[in-house]
Design a protein that fits this description.
It is a single chain. The protein contains nine helices and 32 strands. By secondary structure, it is α/β, with parallel strands linked by helices. The protein has three domains: 132 residues, Immunoglobulin-like (Sandwich), CATH 2.60.40; 283 residues, TIM Barrel (Alpha-Beta Barrel); 86 residues, Sandwich (Immunoglobulin-like), CATH 2.60.40. The strands form six sheets. It has an eight-stranded parallel β-barrel, surrounded by four helices. Strands 1, 5, 7, 8, 11 and 12 form a six-stranded mixed sheet that branches.
Length: 529
């Protein structure tokens, strides 16, 4: 057994790798000063047996776990993974563990492995406060709270999702996205529009597009052969590239929303090994959300999906937010499950729902979920993954004003740059800007406060009100006495850099609000300062 003490490590000349002679162990993180910062990735590398990705014995069957013990005695057991040569090649002797510390101070670690070369390593690291962090790294882990219906960054704000759903096979073979450079450019474009989440399928073998999987194989048939029991083998170069993309997304403020199984996709894989690999390689990232499977009902009954969700949650030491797609109506078993943090609602059929009434039905559906959650004594995020009509902003405005969040689904063809749907991303970013200007996380659906007119209302009574008038016109509301109020109008055609219109002050009492022009408008009312 070798004990790695901080006094024995030496900083390499590049300032990025700390290493020692303890049986090939090295520790690495992405910090130019060589410090171990809170929330940043700390990567431990271990020298194991010389192996080949397709060789015997199968290196992917060698289990490595590392138990980290932090200040106050909190413990996390983090899975490790075989990483070939450690630089993206499939053959080598490198096993890794990636860890993100959530507290400043001294952390100890110890390994447990089915192979003696990887077993019984012990050591310690000192974690400092973050400095010069960028993107989502500086906000801490994105987490769910069973008492609040929005996700929140541990060291940052509540998070209002404004997501992009397409193309679902973003990691697949579409020419518009078939290289790392193209994918990074797409992320840069979406981030500039205010999109802060991207729906990413990680397995669609036998699913819709049949071009994304993490297992070794140039064809789906080969991938299936390498996804089962003792022959599970992962494509290290591909997963290395995925990692670089997800880090870029984190830098740019876009949360990777990983969909672990496509609808009607191959379900005969070893679920535990697949999930473990995904968590081991990407779970240290501060902002991840997971979905067990798109249109889960095509492969599993809900009871089975909830059982699988529990098993996934047990593997994830960080408890990243988790949901299951296509549970569309309030369902008690779903709400009550401790493994579930959000809905993933699909409404309508592609391109077929276009009426105003259907747009506005998302408000009622969000209200129904929130009401039932209140009755069950638990809050989950009411998230619309595939709301329709696809390009009609009135649908997502009605969802946001109902206390939900939105991920925009667009119409085919999908093998086009995201600029093909520019107005969708611009207007979605504008809706996010409006919502983030109010304390949305404290506000409740309050349509009963609208005394006259057609409008949806989200409110923290006496403090802040947000109304959406889908057809313009007027809406009347009663404002509590004791304060004066500021009124500001927002044109939903605007993007995230839009300007407020007709700022005015009003007194308490009944107020009739009139939209500045025809068409839909949003308005916020806050206590005057």
């Amino acid at each position: 057994m070798n004990l790695v003490r901080s006094s024995l490590v030496a900083l390499a000349a590049c300032g990025m790798v700390i290493s020692c002679a303890a049986r090939g162990l090295s520790v690495e993180q992405n910090d130019e000063r060589g410090e171990f910062s809170k929330w940043r990735t700390i990567e431990l590398r271990f020298a194991g047996p010389k192996s080949r990705a397709l060789g015997e014995a199968n290196p992917f069957e060698i289990r490595l776990d590392v138990k980290f013990r932090g200040p106050g005695g909190r413990e996390l057991t983090v899975p490790g993974f075989y990483d070939g040569d450690g630089r993206g090649g499939g053959d080598g002797n490198v096993w890794k563990v990636r860890f993100a510390a959530d507290a400043v101070g001294k952390w100890s670690y110890s390994t447990n492995s089915t192979h003696k070369a990887l077993d019984t390593h012990r050591g310690s690291i000192v974690v400092t406060a973050p400095r010069d962090a960028r993107g989502l790294w500086k906000l801490g882990r994105l987490e769910a709270d069973p008492k609040v219906r929005y996700l929140k960054f541990r060291d940052g704000p509540y998070w209002l999702k404004a997501g992009c759903d397409d193309p679902e096979n973003f990691l697949g073979g579409y020419r518009s996205y078939d290289s790392l450079a193209k994918r990074k450019a797409a992320i840069d474009y979406l981030a500039g529009k205010g999109v802060n989440s991207l729906y990413i399928m990680t397995h669609n073998v036998d699913g819709d597009d049949k071009d994304v999987w993490p297992w070794i194989g140039a064809t789906a048939r080969e991938a299936k052969r390498h996804s089962v029991s003792a022959n599970t083998r992962f494509d290290i170069p591909k997963l290395t590239e995925w990692r670089e993309l997800f880090e870029h997304m984190t830098d740019r403020g876009v949360v990777p929303y990983l969909i672990l199984e496509d609808d009607s996709a191959w379900s005969g894989y070893d679920h535990q090994r697949y999930w473990r690999e995904i968590i081991a390689r990407f779970g240290d990232l501060p902002a991840l959300t997971f979905n067990l499977g798109e249109e889960h009902n095509e492969n599993y009954k809900l009871s089975k999906s909830l059982e699988l969700a529990g098993r996934f949650r047990d593997l994830d030491p960080y408890h990243h937010p988790l949901g299951i797609h296509n549970v569309n109506r309030p369902t008690d078993s779903y709400i009550d499950s401790p493994a579930i943090d959000f809905t993933a609602i699909q409404t309508g059929s592609p391109g077929r729902k276009r009426s105003l009434d259907y747009c506005l039905s998302h408000n009622r559906l969000a209200n129904d979920w929130i009401r039932r959650c209140q009755q069950r004594g638990r809050s989950i995020v009411v998230n619309f993954d595939e709301g329709r009509p696809e390009h009609d902003r009135r649908a997502w405005w009605s969802a946001y004003l109902g206390g939900g969040v939105w991920e925009a689904h667009v119409l085919e063809p999908y093998d086009r740059p995201h600029t093909a749907w520019d107005s969708v991303w611009s207007e979605l970013g504008g809706a996010r800007a409006f919502m983030e200007s109010i304390p949305f996380w404290r506000m409740l659906p309050s349509n009963q406060l609208v005394l006259d007119g057609t409008a949806f209302c989200l409110a923290e009574p006496g403090v802040a009100y947000a109304l959406y008038l889908p057809t313009g016109g007027t809406a009347a509301i009663e404002l509590p006495s004791g304060s004066n109020y500021e009124v500001a109008w927002w044109d939903p055609q605007q993007d995230r850099a839009g300007k407020w219109s007709r700022r005015t002050r009003v007194a308490a009492g009944r107020q009739t609000l009139r939209a500045p022009t025809n068409g839909d408008w949003a308005v916020k009312i806050t206590v005057a300062k």
